[in-house]
Amino acid sequence: MLVLVCCFLLVMALFGALGLDIASTVLARERWQDAADIAAQAGALTGETHVKVRVDRTRWYEVCNQFSCWCKEDYMPPAYIEDREDRVWAGWERRAGCMPGCPGVSCSSPVLLDRWVEYRGGKAEQAALAAAQANAPEAQADVRVYGDRRSAFYPSVVVRVSGAVKSWFPGLTEILSYRTGKCGQAATIIRKVRGGGWEDPPADACAAVK
Questions:
Q1: Do residues 106 and 36 both lie within one domain?
Q2: CB neighbour list of residue 89: distance below 8 Å, 6 or more residues apart
Q3: Whole domain around residue 38: which residue ranges?
Q4: In the chain, what are the helix, strand and coil shares in percent, each to the nearest 5?
Q5: Residue 156 is assigned to a structural domain of this protein
Q6: To which H or E segment does residue 112 belong?
Q7: I need a surface site. Which of 10, 14, 66, 162 has the fewest CB within 10 A?
């Protein structure tokens, strides 16, 4: 009878440890999913929107004869400006050489030719790793930044958070562990050059590697 009781208690302990293992794994995956999502968003927020614009220009110069002077216009090649979007809109007149008056240079409003996202100076990786470490310090984070416009995952930051969950089985805590991980992706969405609205989101990088 005593043997049966001991066997029963052992089986119950093993089932209890199994339940704790499952619960620990589920909780870890949920926490790591949150960490991956937050880290990817932190990386994507560092993306800079750049634009290319064309500014059409006309040069004006003064012509005089013995009776009077007047202004005459002359062809001037357009100016093309590429830079971070906020800088372009704040200083396009100066950079295009616009100068009212005669003599001077008159400029039309900029024509938007292109818009894109750049991740510069490793800022996206640093921000994503810092966020992942803050939210899941016990796990490892792998960060991929897709800043190449030819990539199906452009423009986005993908973070994979993974680690090991130790087992609760008696005597096997330091030996048996479960490897698991989660993936998060965040995009830097920008407005379309033509037609209004927003650019389509990139392909799902997390689903692509499953």
A1: no
A2: 110
A3: 20-47+120-208
A4: 35, 35, 30
A5: yes
A6: strand 111-118
A7: 66
